[in-house]
Structures are given as structure tokens and as C-alpha cells.
Amino acid sequence: IEEPGLDVNKLQEQGINGRGINVAIIDKPIRDTHYEFFGRIKEYVLINQTVNIRRTAISWDNCAGFLCGNTCGVANRVNLFYYAYPDYFLTDEEYWNYHFKAFDMIIDHNSKSMDL
Questions:
Q1: How many Å separate Cα 44 from the centre of its chain?
Q2: What is the pTM of this model?
Q3: For the residues 52-80, what does the mean pLDDT come to?
């Protein structure tokens, strides 16, 4: 594996790689089948199952990849929980409602994890 930059490989060799850390991202859809995310995405949730999501958010592919990508991720062993909402909104209220729903899902997920 090539060095992703910033001497990240040196940190990862010391065990500083995100192992055991859970991270949640709430944003537009990403291409969750991309090889950079293989084994990293522990849960990919479409917040609104009834809305036809038209496209992926390329910028978040990049951001998620830099976070936990298998070859370019700074913390390439984190567990990523991705909450995707549609790429368009009719109102600001609709936009925030997706976020609030995702927050509720994250809180619920974490409370169940704490019971294990």
C-alpha cells in the first residue's frame, strides 16, 4: 500500500488507525460499494426509504475515503456508520428533519450497543 501522505503509514504502524472507533456521517449518499469502503462501512442507512435517491455525493465519497478508506484513509480501521438523505429538499425544514431523524437513529444505535 502506498503512503497516503502526511506520514499516515507511520501512525498506522504504531496502531493509531481508528480500530474500535465508531464514526457516523450524515449526508448525501455515497458509493458504498467502492473498494475503499470494503469492510469499513458497518451500516449504510437510507434515512428516507420512500424517496428515490438520484445520485451520490462525490464530495462525501472523498471525505469518507480520506477518513477510513482502505488505501487512503487516515483512520483506515474505524467503523463507519453512514446515514444518507436525499440529494434535494423542498424546504429547510425537510433538510433538518432528515438530520434529526439520523440523530435519533444514532442515539438509538449507541444505546443498544451500550447494553451489550
A1: 8
A2: 0.80
A3: 77
